[in-house]
Design goal:
two-stranded antiparallel ribbon, alpha/beta, globular
């Protein structure tokens, strides 16, 4: 009842997936994928026994993934980090939101004190992390005309802001879990899975309230066998292809409205009275 009273349905539909604008001419747009290669610059990330640095491995995978996505009709990739430099975690999220990304993929390589640990994992933001990040996002947006899912927070009361962001965040988390399951299916064909289910953690890069986000630990760089594979450009391409497969399969099943992928799935059953002009429209 409270939500109905507070939200003008003409302004927001929080239960629906995040919508991005079509281009300036109103034409269908590409699906935008933000690819985040973890660490960089003075932060090498995990380091293997042979000196393999996580920052270099994940950038290689990210670049391969971008090539594949850019070749896919109706999809476009945005590299959050495209070189060996440091980016703050909040900056990574900000760059994804500025790109109006439909999906945020953060790529990493795990490490553990036990060198026998192996396999890939896929993470989404934990419930507890989501609750705290709603409050954090509101605090950061207090003096700005921020947007969530195309809805401006400017001029809205504190309670309405809280309701809007919280509802959108819940919807985004549901989508993130769906994406993660597709990623696991893709990675199963390339690498052993450290955990076969979607894992949850309070990773800062997964906190955009309006972008489905997943973090992929491609392998354990602390495991000698997996470190050797991660150093291989061929294996990097295999991992990128697995992530690409999960991404494409997810968006084929869940094409965002207003995108070229959504138009491909549009069907119309011809019936008596239809005209060519109406069908063309």
């Amino acid at each position: 009842r409270l939500v109905v009273d507070l939200i003008d349905s003409s302004e927001a539909k929080p239960r629906e997936p995040v919508r991005r604008n079509t281009d300036k001419l109103g034409k269908p747009r590409d699906v935008i994928i933000a690819i985040d290669a973890g660490h960089g610059g003075d932060d090498p990330g995990a380091v293997g026994r042979k000196g393999t640095k996580e920052k270099n491995v994940v950038l290689g995978i990210a670049r391969e993934l971008k090539k594949m996505i850019d070749k896919q009709p109706g999809m476009k990739a945005k590299l959050i980090r495209d070189g060996d430099y440091f980016l703050a975690l909040d900056t990574r999220v900000k760059k994804a939101r500025e790109a109006q990304a439909d999906l945020f993929i953060s790529i990493h390589a795990d490490a553990f004190k036990d060198r026998r640990a192996r396999g890939s994992s896929v993470f989404v933001l934990s419930e507890n992390g989501a609750s705290s990040e709603v409050a954090s996002f509101l605090a950061e947006s207090e003096n700005s005309s921020d947007l969530i899912g195309g809805v401006s927070l400017d001029g809205k009361g504190d309670l309405l802001k809280l309701v809007l962001v919280d509802m959108l965040k819940n919807s985004t988390m549901e989508e993130s879990n769906d994406v993660a399951r597709y990623m696991i299916k893709g990675l199963k064909g390339v690498n052993h899975m450290h955990k076969k289910h979607v894992e949850e953690a309070r990773f800062r890069v997964l906190t955009a309230p309006d972008i489905p986000s997943v973090l992929i630990e491609t392998a354990f760089i602390s495991n000698p066998k997996e470190e050797r594979k991660l150093r291989s450009k061929r294996h990097q391409r295999k991992l990128a292809k697995a992530i690409f497969k999960g991404t494409v399969n997810y968006f084929k099943s869940n094409p965002p409205p207003g995108t070229l992928l959504a138009l491909k799935d549009r069907k119309h059953k011809i019936s008596s009275g239809d005209t060519l002009s109406a069908l063309a429209e």
